[in-house]
Amino acid sequence: MKKFDCVAIAGVGLIGGSVGLALRARGLARSVVGFGSRPATLATAHERGAISEIGADLASAVSHAELVVVCAPVAEIVEQVRQVARHCRPGTLITDAGSTKVDIVKQLEQAALDDSAWGREVRFVGSHPLAGNEKKGPKHADGELFSGRLVVVTPTAATRPTDVRTIAEFWRALGATVLEMPAGEHDRALAATSHLPHLIAAGIAGSTPEEFIALTASGWQDTTRIAGGDPALWRQIMLANRDNLLEALDRFAQHLTEWRAALVAGDGAELERLLTEAKRIRDRAGS
Amino acid sequence: MKKFDCVAIAGVGLIGGSVGLALRARGLARSVVGFGSRPATLATAHERGAISEIGADLASAVSHAELVVVCAPVAEIVEQVRQVARHCRPGTLITDAGSTKVDIVKQLEQAALDDSAWGREVRFVGSHPLAGNEKKGPKHADGELFSGRLVVVTPTAATRPTDVRTIAEFWRALGATVLEMPAGEHDRALAATSHLPHLIAAGIAGSTPEEFIALTASGWQDTTRIAGGDPALWRQIMLANRDNLLEALDRFAQHLTEWRAALVAGDGAELERLLTEAKRIRDRAGS
After folding, report:
1. Fewer C-beta neighbours within 10 Å, C or N terminus of chain A?
2. Is A214 in CB contact (< 8 Å) with chain B?
3. Is the Cβ–Cβ distance between A178 and A153 less than 8 Å?
4. Hey, which residues 230-259 in chain A have their CB within 8 Å of chain B?
5. Residue ranges of chain A with pLDDT lower than 70?
6. What is this structure's pTM?
7. Contact pairs from chain A to chain B, CB under 8 Å
8. Contact yes or no for B194 and A219 at CB 8 A
9. A92-123: buried (b, 16+ CB within 10 Å) or exposed (e) per residue?
């Protein structure tokens, strides 16, 4: 990948901070400018070396950037990208790290047409690094967070192939494997592989009678780990991918009726069949 | 704890092998005799130092033991304990490591009355170390498996207090914290904290469309990890605790209807309330 003179990161929490650490540790950008609404977060990111400069405001932070990575909560991404587009110079490429893609990509395609200040030479390509965890904030940032992880890039019919290539190379340079797919396909898949598991993990935690908490062990802890994630962020993700999540939830609930019937009937063979099928799929996915 | 001259372990897989390693590493038993139906498993346990001797048959393996730990699959525990009771000498104490307790404890109390060969001087106290994981076999055994973990001991009205004390001291000597409770209370709690999470983890894995597996990440992997466990063992556990598990499953399904309603209504505040409540309980339980 060609080295960037300047990359700007909007939102320097776990993901944004890790992007900065990875860029700087690998010498991929001469300067990394961070900006965001919380001075303490920016200060921590700077102390940890995730950013080389703190932008005084959004306009100055992005004014020299060739690439801007917007790592805001899902519900804030569209507005942030619009503001970035208003203030960066022609030729700047913008990407994000949001867990849902359809709403963001569609709204930004429309914004590029509507916003008179959005130069035609500013382009957005949606990204989703599958690399978060239940932690938050720049103190947990990790320059190897993307190593060996998957990043989905979601071009549209209007996206220039050279821009997709640049964004894909960017994530690969950070250690990730990149998969290109339409935003709709991404959102359907992630509803099943990320958003439903989050809802279910929270459902297990939330419905465990508190008097039994002392009797939890590693099985409960693994199964519910992601329920420790930030409620405000997950509320946004669930709402942004609501239809797909409802479909995944109903498929799961339908599947549970098979388990229930096997239990009610005391049907050991059927229980073992369900357990074996689940183990086969689980074992395919790796640890 | 007083040091044992001889402890016998029936079933030297993950749990039995770990008991042996822990006893020997801590110098708590002069000899540890293992026995079981698979010569290869016994050989591995012996090579790893989990047992000092391989019993030629059950009768000779237990004939000198002061304590016998039965680490068989749940459905085989009652029969194994009955056989042990027939062959060990008066004064021998027997415990198990089964994940369910009511059936085992009840059937063994009845057996002690029925079995003419079951001397009154042979006593059983039920145990459940909350220390398994999705791995199996003596190659994964670990002498520190019980360190800092919980072991539930389930005496009945007929159990002698000195026997409960001996068994509790035994697990504590292996590094565990011991909790005494009635078998019924144990089974109700474990249905919610272990057996339901297993069913749900398997349900998530089993209902994930296979074309989406490539898009799983750490959230899915954590949530479904225990679905990689042994189907034959889990079939037995689920059947042995069927009524409590059905109750926990129905409580969970009822709880899911709240999530579904919030999603359908697009009610972000309610979603955040559910997520926050789940996080509160999750955070209480530790990592």
Report:
1. C
2. yes
3. yes
4. 231-232, 234-236, 238-239, 242, 245-246, 249, 251-256, 259
5. 117, 119-120, 287
6. 0.93
7. 277
8. yes
9. bbbbbbbbbbbbbbebbeebbeeeeebbeebb
